[in-house]
Write a structure and sequence with these properties.
Blueprint: H1 4-14, H2 19-26, H3 30-37, E1 40-41, E2 47-48, H4 54-64, H5 68-71, E3 106-109, H6 114-120, H7 124-127, E4 132-133, E5 143-147, E6 162-167, E7 179-184, E8 188-197, H8 198-201, E9 203-207, E10 218-221, E11 225-235, H9 244-268
Parallel strand pairs: 3-5
Antiparallel strand pairs: 1-2, 3-4, 5-6, 6-11, 7-8, 7-11, 8-9, 9-10
Helix pairs in contact: 2-3
Amino acid sequence: MTTIDEKITAIINHFQLNNYAFSKRIGVTGTTVDSIVNGRPQADGSRKKTKPGYDVLAAIIDEFDINPDYLFGKSTVLLKSNIVNTPTYSGMPKVVTTTPDGEENVVFVPVKARAGYLDGYGDAEFIETLPAFYMPQLTNGTFRCFEVQGNSMVGTFFNGDMVFGRYIEAFNDIKDGRVYIIISKNDGVVLKRVINRIEDQGKLILKSDNKDGNYPTFTINSEDIMEVWDVAMYASKQMPEPVDVSDRLHDLESKLLELQQKVSQNSKN
């Protein structure tokens, strides 16, 4: 673990100062700084380092814009200006629609409405132009339905499928490996499998399920994210093909039946 004197030495070196110049910047004597980083000589020839007091630490933080958590061992980020600030992202979507009975509707965003949705996701008049319907199966949250566009998620979702997303109220609710609809300033509406690196890197890593090499992984910065919807259900016109294992089992069952018939026929003869 890095000690406080080592952290202060790192600050001095970062700003390319010597102990005397550093001491003048924080309003103490050069001897004070020297005793902290190098230690005071002792009778036995050793050096005993002085622990900095509150006033010294406060002066260092204020003068050099130091991240307090760096000094106290809670962060490796030296400067406040380098701290990744996670924007506030909480509450409900800006616009919801309801049934006459007060139940929340599911608003449907078809492919043709995607461009408008980027500008109008917070505009009540625009949201009211989109189809909306009530689904009693979707409760405990606000839900929105998006039409899948493209083939980047083939293997899980297909072009034209409809995915139902539950609104995510906070970035730390995003779970690694789950599929989300991300609404962002630069990338629009995307459906991807997500790795959450908001806390330490300020971004989400977005991956495609289609592994044909045409859909590379990319990132979206937290400040560019407008909405996040967790895929809770989907509807598809694609009927799943039988898996290879099932095909082989069917083949084995046919051969076993043929063998049983031959054995039975031979026993009769």
